[in-house]
Each structure stands twice: as structure tokens, then as C-alpha cells.
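User: What would this chain look like folded?
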Amino acid sequence: MPFKKGNSGNPNGRPQGAKGKKTELWEELGRYFVEDGAERVKKIMSKSSDKEFLMYYDKLLEYFKPKLQRTEVKAEISMYEMPNNSGLGYTFDGTPE
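Assistant: Here's the prediction, encoded as C-alpha cells.
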């Protein structure tokens, strides 16, 4: 017999804040990666050559410091709004500052 909309076979349901089995297993796996896995990575990296170390370091680094997305800035600036000393070493007419 189907349930009416909004009603389930367990009206009390799971207690608020209680975690399901999948959530508990996922968190346990995460703890392994962070604790045990990190120690193993340190051992492996400490025994690797400089070249291997840099390869591992580069691959792992993006999980801690993600690569920034490229952004493009578009602006229109009148030459009259620019300061006289642009810091480029040349004036706008091409002569050295």
C-alpha cells in the first residue's frame, strides 16, 4: 500500500543530526586519507629523487592550492586620463622618459 504524500513508513524518522552508514563510511575513508595516507605519502616522498619529489609535489599541490582561473580585464582608458609618468619607460609619443 503506497504512502500518502508527505508521510513515510517511519513517521519519527532518523533523529536530527544522526549520520547514515554511508556518511560514516565516507568520513572514515577521509580520515584514513588525511591521517594514515598522509604519513605514507611523506615516507614515499622523502625517499624519492628530486625529480620524482617535484612531480609528486606538483600533482598534490593543486588539491591544497587550486589553480586560479584565468581572468581577462578589459578597460578603455583615454591617454588624457593617464599620468605623465606611466612607469613604462616611454612616453605615449614613443620618446624615452
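The first helix runs from residue 21 to 47. If you want, I can go into more detail on any region.
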